[in-house]
Amino acid sequence: MSEERTEVLDTVSDTRDSSSPPSDGAAAAAAAEASPAEQGADLEKIVLHSEAEQDAYPYNVAADCWTMVNMRAPVYEPTERSSIDLVAVVDKSGSMSGEKIALVRETLNFVVDQLKDTDRLGIISYDTSVYQDLRLTVMDHHGKSVAHGVIDRLRDGSSTNLSGGLEKGLGLIEQLGSDKRDVSSVLLMTDGMANQGFTNRDDILRRMTRAGRRQDGDEHVGFLGSVQRGLSRLLGSSERSTSPTSSDEEVAAIVHTFGFGSDHKASLLEAISERGRGMYYFIDDNEKIPEAFADCLGGLLSTVGQNVSLKITTSNGAGITKVHHRRAGPLSESATKCEVKIGDVQSEEQRDIVIQLQLPVLQSPRPEPEVVLNAELSYFNAITSMMEKDTTSIHVSRPGEVTADSARPNASIDMQRSRVVAADAMKQATELADKDKLEEARAVIDKASALIKASITKDEDQSKSLLADLEKSREQLVSRQAYRQGGHFMYMQAQSHAVQRSSAAASESYVTPRKKMMKQAAPKKK
Questions:
Q1: Dmax over Cα atoms in the chain, in whole Å?
Q2: Are 104 and 525 in contact (CB under 8 A)?
């Protein structure tokens, strides 16, 4: 790995037993010997895998060792999925008038029709004020009829109290206490700038949790939540010990954001979605509104893992240089530990966590493979309704001489490194462009493109897709007007590539079969 590519990653910002690494053939033999019941259980779990860029590194020099932990979610097509809680937070300010609010109504009616009779839906709308149009209501026949009526009555109003609408939507989930569904989400939509209530980015992000609102003196928020939880216990409501946990410091639900047109502040909506472990959708064409919501809903309805966390620990003197994931926590003081809070994982998705290690200089050769990294995956399995754990280890040897076979480049890691390069470049470019530093932003994009074109996987379809997105991003940076009209695309694509989840209505990157099916069923403009 060249120093140049390392610099860009920093500024652009095989599952084995810990004692002896079996060969792939041994692993396959072990899998073949598993009972049908064991094999069936494995099909319901996230599969963990890990590898290093090289099998061996010279013992007498410090080595830059690139590694990757991969997780793949199972195919999940349940006959009876878990119930969900969904709150739609709808901007009905004056600029949403006409076709825009009409398409939002049609799309929300489509969402209602996809929900089953044990799901719950709430609707909050906001302009200058905030309105609870529909409390969380079970979507049985009667509930759907009520919801359709509420949606059909949505009309545009005045200003944009985005923070008030978001807080009210999260509040509906928070008040459920232990009665909250396994999958809970808030869908926040707007076409403009927040100009009522709290408008500062940091204030809005802080107030997405009970603890944050209490810092501002909103003590009643936490008190109401405590009363609700106390009543649930008093009335005999039980909370499964295996279900996902939440606290006053955590956002109560996954928050997805939808920005219509070019007048909204992309940096704010992307930040809200990151804080809420969700995705930001930029909708530049009203006709794409149904597809964007269908993409989001298809993912929510196929969630297989929640509160997914990966704990990384190094061994034998290896240190962590960087974990290349935007949801990675800080490194420990010794640079030997890090936790990546991935959030939820949906059916057939995969996550590739690229980890850069520094291997120490050794006094003598160690030709036998030794563990340099251990990773522990933990999550709530929405299929089995149980907490799950899995582990994997990465082994490398430190011989006196490294053979050509041991130093052969790893295509999988190279491909994911290119993905990280592209995502970090787009993210850094947006930050520069927001400061009117368009020339510097273009230089960042150009450097990332050159690195990917020089990679060993440059001819792969994924590399071509990354290069196409970088080229489109560069087109948004040719002038201030171009960036104002299309820079939102860069925010969306940077996040999509960083967390490996689809968000663009027209993009096929990371789209799962479940999402594709839901998008095909979405209402089309007549």
A1: 76
A2: no
